[in-house]
Amino acid sequence: MEEQQAEQLTNREEKELHRQERREQQEAIERWRKIKKALKWGIGIAVAAGAIYGVIAISGQGEAGKEPLGRSIPSQGQAHIAAGAAHQEYNSNPPTSGWHYAQPANWGVYQKELPDEQIIHNLEHGGIWISYKDVDADTLSKIEDIAKRYPNKLIVTPRTKNDSAIALVSWGRSLELGSFDEQIIIDFIKSNKNKSPEPNAQ
C-alpha cells in the first residue's frame, strides 16, 4: 500500500515536473519572442535615425563645401589710410579688399556715390555692396526693395566707375550683372554675407 502511494507520488511529481518544464519552456520562448521584437524595433529605430543623420550630415557638408557665389579676388589686405590718401590700384572693379578709411559707412541705401575706400571697410565687416550704373527707375526700385529685406550688412549706391549695370561685391568676391536678377542677388547676399576678416563688427 505504502509502495503504491509512493509510486503515485512519484508519478504525480513527474507529471508536475513535466508541467513545470513545459511552463518554463513556454516562458523562455515568450521571452525570446519579446527580445526579438524589441531588437527588431531597436534596429529599425537605429537604421531610421542613422538615415536621418546621414541626410542631415550630407546636406550640411553640401552647404559647408559649397563655393560662395561670385568670382574670387585675391585679398589686398586690410590697411587703414587717412581720408583722401593715395594708395596702390585695386585689383578689381569695384574693389573687394585693400586700403580703406578707418570709418565705415552706415548700412543702407544711398542716392549718391560713396568713396570706395569707405565701403571697403564695410566689406571687411562682412557687408555686401550692391552698386549700379545707368539703371532705370524700376530696376532701382527692385534693388532698393531687396535692401529693405537686409537692413544690416548691406549697402546700395550708384557708381559711375562700374563696368556693368549692377555689381555685387563682398570681401574677396565679385559678381557683375548686365541686368537685374533678384534670385542671383539674394543668393550672393546669403552666400557671402559675413565671410570676411571681421564678420562680427558693425
Architecture overview:
This protein is α/β, with parallel strands linked by helices. The chain has two domains: 1-66; 71-192, Glutaredoxin (3-Layer(aba) Sandwich), CATH 3.40.30. It is 48% helix and 14% strand. The chain is built from four helices and eight strands, in the order αββββαβαβββα. The protein has helices at residues 2-65, 116-124, 137-149, 182-192; strands at residues 71-72, 80-81, 100-101, 108-109, 128-132, 154-158, 166-170, 173-177. The strands form two sheets. A six-stranded mixed β-sheet has the order 1-8-7-5-6-4. It has a two-stranded parallel ribbon with strand order 2-3. A hairpin with a 2-residue loop joins β7 (166-170) and β8. The protein is rod-shaped. The relative contact order is 0.13. Mean pLDDT is 84; it is low at 53-64.
